[in-house]
Amino acid sequence: MSDTISVLGGTGALGRALALRLARAGQPVVVGSRDAARAEATAKELTGILAEVGVEADVDGAANGEAAASGDVVLLATPWDESGQSIAALAEALAGRLVVSCINPLGFDKQGPYGLTVAEGSAAEQVAGLLPASTVTAAFHHLSAPSLANLDKDLSAEDVLVCGDDAAARTRVVALAAAVTGRPGVDVGALRQARVLEPFTAVLIAVNKRYRTRAGVLLTHVDLSRGPA
Ligand SMILES: NC(=O)c1ccc[n+]([C@@H]2O[C@H](COP(=O)([O-])OP(=O)(O)OC[C@H]3O[C@@H](n4cnc5c(N)ncnc54)[C@H](OP(=O)(O)O)[C@@H]3O)[C@@H](O)[C@H]2O)c1
Description:
10 strands; binds NADP nicotinamide-adenine-dinucleotide phosphate; eight-stranded mixed sheet; alpha/beta; 9 helices
């Protein structure tokens, strides 16, 4: 049976688009929100969009706590919160789950986007500290929500870079990336690589503005069919 994927912040731009793509790929999905009614409305909306393209999707909506407890894999598609309060509050519900942080701590000023300083090194490492009973990975930082939301857009030439301290968990997320983009993710190693992945998104956003595009990441000379050694 397929893993159930819960998406916290599933009503937002990234979460909703990831939920849409995962449901299209046949994964059971639970959209999470701080407001159960908002989550249910988004789930209904995504089900409708997929029905229009002939996909009978399995998408439910629930308050974040219930969504967290229902997922085999739980994606964090919420804004970075220096205090970590909202994630810490879910520690019990997320115990034993594979958590994937998609969080990019970014700031914007007159010079454009930049990576914020995170005391723990990265948002992903902060999450790992807040969720000692969960297995924490990080991925999907560089996909653009509008591109994901456009189901006609081919994302199979974009790499999803996956990091985490548990090799088996990274392998699961590498496979999950294929359900989102059509291309397996790239295992980039330890969770601390998130210190590079998260702020790199500021570079993509700066490029997007200058070239009026939605830039993505593609590593050259990596044979994904062989998998990591
Ligand atoms: N947008 C992108 O293209 C993109 C790409 C890669 C990564 N990301 C990262 O993904 C995360 C979400 O980005 P987004 O653009 O989707 O943001 P967004 O549109 O603002 O959505 C975030 C969702 O998180 C929930 N939320 C807001 N404040 C919260 C809080 N204090 N605690 C818990 N939940 C909260 C909200 O849902 P409810 O109000 O329903 O709870 C909201 O719909 C960010 O960390 C961002 O850096 C975004």
